[in-house]
Amino acid sequence: MKKTAIYIRVSTGHQENSELMQSEKCLTYCSMKGYEVVDVFIDSNVSGGVRLFDRPAGSRLKKCLDNKEIDNIVVYKLDRMTRSVVDGLTVLNDFNANNIDFSVIDMSGETLDSSTPLGRMMVTMMLAFAELERHTIRDRVKKSLQHRKENLKVYSGKTPYGFTRKDKDLIPNLKEMEVVKQIYRMKDNDSELQTSFRTIARVVKMNVSKVHRIYNDEIYEQFL
């Protein structure tokens, strides 16, 4: 009987990948296969971009591997474990070194033998597609945000300094926009000693983090 660890990761409250759903699917599969579930490791509110063994539950899972307490890992989806090709290959190397098998439920429960060239290639391809999807979504969101800024549309829950909000539009506040221009002039002066954000904050009587945020937001570029 395989001593099995179930790994669950939840980054949002979406029902599709809820903690309860993942747990039920994995426990049902283990029961069907006759696996002995040694422990269930759950990382809540953790992004898939964080390396597996750097997560709270992931680090405890690593100790189990090193202590030879388990010989099988079950996950609901591969991207619950990792979304990075580099991290994924590192994890596979650890699995191989410890003779660990792992099963992915949404692949009809097929066991991926990462010790074989074919199994390793399949996992690498799956991770590559998952990473591509993540970067594509991130790029799409970035372009959407840039478009909204260029057209002075609301792009966050907080109205940026220098603007007032009217429905979904951002209306420039001329008085505040002069302060914004002052911040950029001071920071982008031609002297060899560039003015620090702390100094600028004192001059414009504003919080340092707020000055930094204004200077790094491209929405102001069209007003300079």
Question: What do you see in this structure?
Answer:
By secondary structure, the protein is an alpha/beta fold. 48% of the residues lie in helices and 16% in strands. The protein contains eight helices and seven strands, in the order E-H-E-H-E-H-H-E-E-H-E-E-H-H-H. Helix 6 runs antiparallel to helix 7 (197-204). The radius of gyration is 25 Å and the shape is elongated.
- Number of extended strands: 7
Rg computed from alpha carbons, rounded to a whole number of angstroms? 25 Å
Distance between the termini: 69 Å
Low-confidence regions: none
What are the SSEs and their pairings?
Elements: E1 3-10, H1 19-33, E2 36-44, H2 56-66, E3 72-75, H3 78-81, H4 85-97, E4 101-104, E5 111-112, H5 117-150, E6 163-166, E7 169-172, H6 174-187, H7 197-204, H8 208-215
Provide tags for this entry.
224 residues; 48% helix; 16% strand; two-stranded antiparallel ribbon; alpha/beta
Précis, in short:
This protein has 224 residues and is α/β, with parallel strands linked by helices. It contains eight helices and seven strands; from the N terminus they run βαβαβααββαββααα.
